[in-house]
Model the fold of this input.
Amino acid sequence: MAATRPYRSTLRQEHAEQTRRRILEAAAAVFSSRGYASASLADIAAAAGVSVESVKVHGPKRALLLAAFELTFGGEAGESSLAERPEVAAIAALDDADRMLAELIPFIAAANARTAGLWSTFTAAARDDDTVAAVLAELLERRHADYGLLVGLLAERGVAEVSALDDAGRRELADGLSFVMSPEGYQQLVRESGWSFERYTRWLSGTVRLLVTAERAASTG
Done:
């Protein structure tokens, strides 16, 4: 009997993780369709096919919103840097800057497509809820830090325009990349202006590369 306990424990853990993922996926759908204020834990429970008590284990509601966004954007719930996710870490490990951007930009574009509606809910909720606003501020800080890491990687890989920047210039470049590659841009260009995803991705690729190579002139002009 003792030999079966680790196996049973593993099964319970896997079941718990599957349930949590189902709850967060349901939360993402409910928040996107109903908004933060109108969404209830009962709505999320019904969408996930679980009890309200099961949803409460992973709450409160603001925690569900953040975790649902993290899962939808990066494939994993948790308050960790995007650079720590396996897919992004593999991209960051590439030695060639052009190849790194060629793989990173479609990844970000697809993530923005998945989360644009949820991001709108997140930012709207932050305007009316100070606690959500604090959570959003932390998320934005992590996002900016991720783009700071990207700028450093570009410099390490010999992108001359980035290597020549001082600390202030690199921070400015990180600001620009965070803005251009944000879910807000996808929302405006695709959902509001009617661009196709393919057009948006091409635009994002060209704009990021232009920003990277033009930043030195902008910062010294």
